[in-house]
Write a structure and sequence with these properties.
Length: about 130
């Protein structure tokens, strides 16, 4: 009997970019306007329909953004804002954690504080031996 080979759908873990371990919902977001300001080498651009779109080759965020709109919105007070991260951000990424439903926070506080450690915050550990 012939067998049909199909790739199995892979469910990617969202644990690195989203936490729902308590009533609050925490999500990592990146700021594409700052990717542009810091001339990140992982930005790509292409032209389509007479417009230029930019995105991230590392797929930290999944959206392709209209460059003109991105540039114009960065001149406004609230800027372009954050875009949901879909992969663990790199140390170079302008990332922060946004919290929703903060009123649902457990009286004991956050049960997953490591989630708030951002890649750029991580320092190496120095071990000192005293003899
Ligand atoms: S790698 Fe990070 S800093 Fe660079 S474009 Fe992607 S999200 Fe922005
Ligand atoms: S407050 Fe802490 S435990 Fe609750 S969702 Fe956010 S990171 Fe997770």
């Amino acid at each position: 009997m012939a067998r049909i080979r199909q790739p199995l759908p892979v469910v990617e873990s969202t644990e690195q970019v989203e936490c729902r371990r308590c009533g609050v919902v925490c999500q990592k977001v990146v700021h594409p306007s700052r990717c542009l300001e810091q001339s990140c080498p992982f930005l790509y651009a292409y032209e389509a329909f007479g417009r230029t779109y930019v995105g991230c080759t590392q797929e930290i965020f999944a959206a392709d953004i209209d460059l003109d709109i991105l540039r114009r919105s960065t001149r406004r007070r609230n800027g372009f804002g954050g875009v949901r991260a879909v992969r663990e951000p790199l140390a170079v990424c302008p990332v922060e954690v946004e919290r929703a439903y903060e009123n649902r926070e457990d009286p004991m506080g956050c049960v997953n504080p490591e989630f708030h450690e951002l890649p750029g915050d991580r320092r190496s550990i120095r071990v000192i031996s005293e003899r």
